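Obj.: predict assembly geometry.
Materials: sequence records (below).
Method: joint structure prediction, all chains together.
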Amino acid sequence: MTEPLLRATDLTLRFGGNIALDGVSFDVHQGELLAIIGPNGAGKTSTFNCISGVYRPQAGDVRFQGESLLGKRPHKIAARGIARTFQNIELFDNLSVLENLLLGRHHLMRVPWWQAMAWLPAAQREERAARLEIEHLIEFLGLTAVRRHPVGILPYGIKKRIELGRALAMKPELLLLDEPVAGMNAEETEDMARFILDIRTELGMAIVMVEHDMRLVMDLADRVLVIDFGRPIALGTPQEVQHDPAVIAAYLGGAADEVLQGLGEEAP
Ligand SMILES: Nc1ncnc2c1ncn2[C@@H]1O[C@H](COP(=O)(O)OP(=O)(O)OP(=O)(O)O)[C@@H](O)[C@H]1O
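Observations (raw structure tokens):
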């Protein structure tokens, strides 16, 4: 198998006496969709935060294209090619869809600030190229009809799609999706699922997705990592993890019926 795009090894993260992560390891390969699941407080967001530089684990390593990300600031990690979306939407409500996506593209601009200020030809060329790419992205995400609308007036499902667009505007090689369908109705969830699939198949992008919606996870993921109390308890294909007794046990006591149905099992 080829060298992984991302390799997390033995991630250990503590907050005082509270252990958020305890030896979490996994690889993400080019073009793969890895889902991370687990009960509330299991350590899913902490894992994302260790990858994106928000938290620094006390032990373990995260390597992206062979290079350690430890100690790098979040904006440097984003510039290296890892973009993320958040559980809570973080967009500029007063700016248009187009402007929000252009801001996502901004960190890739190469022209020095003094050329941009003077609006010299190189800056104009770069701006034109960025706009063209963003227009393609807007079309790809079916946002053409609302491209000039201020984000604040748009429905929740569309806002989540714009947030996805802003992450894609950074032209990442790895996309981290934190609960992409949380709070969505069935139709919005279906739309989002289609876009996630398109990103993987048409753009060939690797994706790590944290999600509670088990149907979505089982439909979309190539592999699933299951975390419980900060410890990895299973890693395999959706079929493998859904029959894993440790996974079924981890979810008992929570919303077992709902979750096990999502996993394709009858709740006991
Ligand atoms: N900044 C922090 N300070 C203290 N404890 C934290 C912090 N961030 C996370 N934790 C703790 O680490 C553990 C893992 O939390 P995390 O948010 O990663 O879980 P999660 O699986 O994403 O949960 P959820 O599904 O509810 O979003 C929890 O016990 C949580 O309270």
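Conclusions so far: The two ends are 39 Å apart (CA to CA).
To do: check interface contacts against the pulldown list.
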